[in-house]
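hi! just following up on the protien thing from before. the input was this:
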Amino acid sequence: MTTRLTDLDVTGRIVAVRCDLNVPLGHDESGHVVITDDGRIRASIPTLEDLLSRGARVVILAHLGRPKGQADDALSLAPVAHRLAELLDRPVRFIADASGPGVSLAAQRMTDGDIAMVENVRFDSRETSKSAAERAELADDWATWAEAYVSDGFGVVHREQASVTDLAQRVPRAAGMLVEQEREAFARVLSEPDRPYAVVLGGSKVSDKLGVIEHLLERVDILLIGGGMAFTFLRAQGLQVGRSLLEESMLGTVEEIMQRATQRGVRILLPVDVVVAERISEDAHSEIVSVDAIPEDSMGLDIGPRTIAEFSVAIGQARTIVWNGPMGVFEVPSFAEGTRAIAEAIAASGAFTVVGGGDSAAAIRALGIGEGRFGHISTGGGASLELLEGKDLPGLVVLEEGSA
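and the predicted 3d structure came back as:
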């Protein structure tokens, strides 16, 4: 049984908190690094505030990007620490090392209610090492100062890494508020969902979502498929898709999926019209065509109005909805309407809704749709997909094991 955060004794203790602060970065007009979406930082705040209010000495472990075990100024967590301090309205000390005596000394000097963040843990190659011995060595280093551990980085719980699984085995541990919310939301849609149960899948590739589709075919009532992956389904039905994204190698698999869906009484809804253009650009000429009339020199970049209407009716009838993946290239305004409309339909459905992180969550924020209108917005794209595939995630399994 996982220890809850409220049951973990943290007062006066140095608590290592694994957060997922892997936020997108950009540059302002002056060339300064800016965080373009602070959603993951905001998601970490409830757990951090709880710990601080109980007199914990909080040390955050987190990563940014894929530095491959080498220090990289472009992937420093310093801007993240600065933004977190603004959101918490209190100082957040930034420790310029990821491990070693500098971190230990800084942690030992903390007092109750202090908070610090170490540098990008992936600057230390042992964090993501395939060698259990190397990961253990890094976890042992952190365990010299950590007196408790809180797992609150849902976006990394599908990884077997030193800060995710190894440190958790060495000190008393608990799930943070965010991880607990994620677990409960996905348990609800995977165990006994209210019906009708609809899953809306988008994004680029069928291969990325194959495990999800195969696992959910046993559970759902209706599967709505948009985005680039829809064109492989349409091609499997014998339609020509022009220059649209197509996975030729998946055609046989898609045919089998559609046959299994028919056998199980699962409805699969595919686009009936799409927005096409010759290139992905805001100034490209676009038009709406039926899926059986896609020009040879064009590519489908969004679902069309008839598809939006059909999808919206099905969504409005559902009592449980899982959404993972945009309906088109939402980053370009000309091809964002499908994603916007489906997000609005899901938000207005009255169903219990789970948005599966990644691009779907980014689209909700980018399109200005209120996050509070959804039952749960996951912070972990990869982790949420693996849960929907029915996999056991290492970072969650370790929380279920006996006390350290």
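The radius of gyration is 23 Å.
Residues 39-53 form the longest helix (15 residues).
cheers
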